[in-house]
């Protein structure tokens, strides 16, 4: 296991080496998960690209840090980690809140970003009322009280069948996250509006969404894609909010094809 002190937190991360001359791919996990959600994508890309995965603050084995959080806190954590690892011009692949962190990183540290893969995310997610209600539920009754409803948004009915051991495993991943870190990241999502940042994204961008995503449905992701100059938009069949779990082969193929289209300079426009 690899750990690094970045800003005021210790971040758990994984660095997998790859061929010189290939861009580093950085994966950012969603709310209520840790970086293991990317495993089935990472194993398909390992050896062909250098790869970084990490647990954002308040999740997995990373520190809690000071609460509540802002998206900027998460952005600065990632920027600090990439600086520590001497990474520049990476492909940043973020899911849900991870996608918002990716957008924020491109806005604040464009030197770190060569391209964006924005999975099941948006420039603004949910409403203040929705997030406040979720924060109250987590703080008073714990994550378990919300788990079944979250699973319905994360995964398709086919994946949620009772005999699917993986479904139960991912539900356990959710309920074992820090309730404090989860609520703090809910507050970051509540307060984040990256509409203007999305309009200014200046690198090649792929926007991807599961066709049965219950958290950021296809029309929400499409609305984000329309804000981003030259963005590509793809829908993954038979997937909910976490296609890297349900359809890793399809997502991996999309990422590979997208990287192949990125020009040497990376930037689309000034």
Q: If you compute it from the alpha carbons, what radius of gyration comes out, rounded to the nearest whole angstrom?
A: 17 Å
Number of helices: 11
Please list the strands of the largest sheet in the order they lie side by side. 1-2-4-3-5-6-7-8
Mean pLDDT: 96
Total beta strands: 8
What coarse outline follows from CA principal-axis ratios? Answer: globular
| Residues in β-strands, percent | 15-25%
Describe the sheet with the most strands: 8 strands, mixed
H-E string: EEEHEHEHEHHHHHEHEHH
Q: Detail the poorly predicted runs.
A: 266-270
Helix content: 40-55%
Question: What layout of secondary structure does this protein have?
Answer:
Layout: E1 2-6, E2 9-16, E3 25-28, H1 39-45, E4 51-54, H2 71-84, E5 90-95, H3 97-108, E6 113-119, H4 128-141, H5 147-154, H6 165-175, H7 179-191, H8 195-199, E7 205-210, H9 218-227, E8 232-236, H10 243-246, H11 248-261
Parallel strand pairs: 3-4, 3-5, 5-6, 6-7, 7-8
Antiparallel strand pairs: 1-2, 2-4
């Amino acid at each position: 296991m690899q750990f690094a002190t970045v800003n005021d937190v210790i971040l758990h991360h994984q660095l997998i080496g790859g061929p010189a001359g290939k861009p580093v791919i950085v994966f950012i996990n969603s709310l209520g998960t840790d970086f293991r959600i990317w495993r089935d994508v990472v194993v398909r890309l390992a050896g062909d690209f250098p790869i970084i995965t990490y647990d954002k603050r308040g999740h997995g084995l990373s520190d809690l840090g000071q609460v509540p959080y802002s998206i900027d806190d998460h952005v600065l954590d990632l920027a600090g980690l990439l600086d520590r690892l001497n990474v520049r011009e990476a492909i940043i692949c973020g899911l849900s809140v991870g996608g918002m962190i990716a957008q924020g990183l491109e806005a604040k540290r464009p030197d770190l970003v060569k391209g964006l893969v924005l999975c099941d995310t948006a420039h603004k997610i949910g409403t203040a009322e929705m997030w406040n209600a979720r924060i109250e539920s987590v703080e008073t009754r714990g994550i378990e009280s919300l788990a079944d409803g979250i699973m319905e948004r994360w995964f398709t009915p086919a994946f949620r069948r009772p005999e699917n051991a993986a479904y139960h495993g991912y539900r356990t991943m959710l309920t074992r996250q820090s309730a404090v870190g989860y609520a703090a990241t809910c507050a970051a999502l509540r307060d984040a509006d990256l509409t203007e940042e999305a309009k200014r994204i200046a690198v090649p961008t792929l926007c991807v969404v599961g066709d049965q995503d219950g958290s950021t449905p296809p029309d929400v992701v499409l609305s984000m894609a329309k804000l981003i100059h030259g963005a590509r938009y793809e829908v993954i069949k038979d997937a909910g909010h976490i296609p890297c779990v349900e359809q890793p082969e399809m997502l991996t193929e999309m990422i590979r094809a997208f990287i192949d289209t990125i020009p040497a300079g990376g930037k689309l426009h000034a």
